[in-house]
Amino acid sequence: MTGPVDPDERASDRRTPDERESAPDETGTRPDGGHAGATVEASTTPVTAANAAAVRGSVRRVLTVAVTEYRLAVRSRWALALTGLFVVFGAMILTFSGSALGPDGAGRVVASLTSLAAYLVPLAALALGYDAVVGREDEGWLAVTFSLPVRRSEVVVGTYLGRLAVLAGATVLGFGFSGVLIVREFGIGAWSAFLGFLLGAVAVGSAFLAVALLLSTVVREKTHALGAALLVWVWFVLIHDLLALGLVAAFELPDIALTASVLSNPVSAFRVLVLSGLGAAAGGGFTALLVDSGLSTASITFALIAWCLVPVAVAARFVRRRRL
Amino acid sequence: MRIDATDVHKTYGDVTALDGLSLSIPSGSTFGVLGTNGAGKSTLFRLLVGHDRPDAGTVAVGGTDVTDDGRRIRELVGYLPEHVGFPDGLTGREVLGFHSRVRGLPRDGRVADAIDRVGLAPEEADRRVSGYSNGMCRRLGLASVLLPDPDVLVLDEPTAGLDPRGVDEFHAIIEEVTSSSDATVVFCSHVLPEVERLCDRAAVLHEGRVHAAGPIDALAADAADDDTGAANRADDRHRGGLRAAFRAAVTDASADEPSEVAP
């Protein structure tokens, strides 16, 4: 049986995307408001011009969806709630570890913030993203949006970018408050350590938002998406490292296993990325073991970027077969 | 713009939604699709806008197969789903702005025109959708599909859930649209009088096939016959009128082969 599919993305579509984008209808009007005559002229210009028009159209549609998602998240007070959450928890960490004076003081505070963010940011990202697709379907908006001349993958990417803007903004503003206090307490020299933490927090949030988007695309019920998101959080934040530690210790696995453990968990990657820059302040335990895994900053950064891109790409693929 | 469905089959698991459906809708007509729940109306409409694709057969809008270029089809077709919904956090005007930007329409005041056309007051259009009644949501949905002046309007049970006054007002809007444009309007309904009022042609679907199809004039002629009250269902089917075919489809699950109403 043939499944539902977004027909404009089928392999059998013989026309290129740019041809579809700029094709005139019977009235001679193109979707971008231009006219058939302009298309005839365009056909004589280099292919790159047509490609550029197609890209512009695609970018316009993605941004339109993203701006709408951002606006909705702000109006539903998600942005405010997340910012407040990060401010409050960051301030608590500063309050209880603020007595750590001396050259390592800033590093220890940042290490504490990292431990907090490893729990909090993934949870916030999953909560923000789990209903991105299935929730919009519930309210009837997905059917309306998919009825427009937009690729389903563009809707998915736009949804991700819109919500990512909310999450990144809340992370920067919320933890930025802690950053200001750290700089005030420990001087401007503490800024670089904090900046590394902030970028890492945004990256790990982006990764979990992408995973949430994928879950939202795969499941049919909003409650199932929520349940799956919680399971994902439990696995990556609570279980994964413990299991990895147990396996490494029990079977004396080689370094490659440790490397795989770090790269297969965005939370571990985030911890290693931030704490490896803090040196002695990073502390001990499994985290120290991970930090000593020898992974370069570039490889960890690449892993985190992959954790953002791959789930979104898979979601964009799956959404084409989603039956409304 | 003409619409042609030819020998279309569609199944969902064990359920056969369309079973060799063939239908032609002439350009510029107002076409009603009648049928009971599960007759295949919404499946047909989903195929028309590329939300789904047929297992076999072809569906073409203006000669373009919907499975060849779904986005092109959706540029031509304005589709109002049965369960239309909008995010609570947007105003009506913002919903229309979203449609306009996604479609790449020029900013020439057409949003305000669409709001006016469907009878939404400007202050209502500036309110959040969360405060809208079902009727207002329907009007907003209709405004969104009218925005690009589409060649084809596909409306899936557009008056479902509306009170009698809302239905009447919605009919008036559809009549205004059909009288002021050359758009082909296709909508489905359970309600015969609605189709009689608005359409110049209609079809009755039953178990995924066209049970009867033809001009609405034939329906009127048949309705006169029906007033005698003498005919039984089988006779009705043989006579082929839409009213009779609809009643037969509603009441008889083992309906006969499709029939064609003489123009």
What is this structure, in a nutshell?
The complex is a heterodimer of chains A (324) and B (263). Chain A is mainly α.
Question: How does this model look, in words?
Answer:
Chain A is mainly alpha-helical and 324 residues long. Chain A has one domain (23-321). Helices cover 74% and strands 0% of the residues of chain A. Chain A is built from 14 helices and no strands. Chain A has helices at 17-22, 36-44, 47-75, 78-97, 105-129, 134-138, 141-146, 152-186, 191-218, 222-251, 255-263, 266-275, 285-291, 297-318. In chain A, helix 9 packs parallel to helix 14 (297-318). Residues 1-5 and 7-40 of chain A have low confidence and may be disordered. Chain B has 263 residues and is α/β, with parallel strands linked by helices. Helices cover 40% and strands 25% of the residues of chain B. Chain B has helices at 41-48, 70-76, 92-103, 110-117, 122-125, 134-146, 164-180, 192-198, 216-226, 233-239, 242-251; strands at 3-12, 15-25, 30-35, 56-61, 64-65, 77-80, 152-156, 184-189, 201-206, 209-215, 259-260. Chain B has a seven-stranded mixed beta sheet with strand order 6-7-8-3-9-10-11, with helices on both faces. In chain B, strand 1 (3-12) and strand 2 form a beta hairpin. In chain B, helix 4 (110-117) crosses helix 6. Chain B starts with a strand and ends with a strand. The model of chain B is unreliable at 226-239 and 253-263 (pLDDT under 50). Chains A and B meet through helix 3 and helix 7 of A and helix 2 and helix 3 of B.
